[in-house]
Amino acid sequence: MSDDMSGFSKRSKLSEEDFYVSEDGFIVFTEAYHLKRGHCCKSGCKHCPYGFNPKTGKVRDLPKT
Q: Is 42 inside any structural domain?
C-alpha cells in the first residue's frame, strides 16, 4: 500500500484545466473540475459552481434546462 494518502494516485489523471497550485502549495480545483465531477461535495470549495453555502449547509437550486 502506498504512503500517499491523497487519493490522487488511484484516480485518473487530472488535466491542466482541472486544478492549479496556490501560492501556498495547495491544489485548488477549478469550476471545470467540479462540473466534470457532477455533484457538490459540500466542502465549501473556492470555485464551487453549485452554490454551496457552508453557513446554511445548502446547495443553491440550479435552474432547470
A: yes
Phi, psi for 10 (deg, rounded to 5) = -95, -5
Q: What is the pLDDT along the chain (65 residues), one digit of tens a residue?
A: 455 545 555 556 788 899 999 999 999 999 999 999 888 999 989 999 998 988 898 888 665 65
Using CA atoms, how far apart are residues 61 and 46, in angstroms rounded to an integer? 18
Range of the structural domain that residue 35 is part of: 16-59
Give the number of other CB atoms < 10 A from CB of residue 32: 15
List the beta bridge partners of residue 58.
Answer: 53
> pTM here?
0.64
Cell for 30?
Answer: 477549478
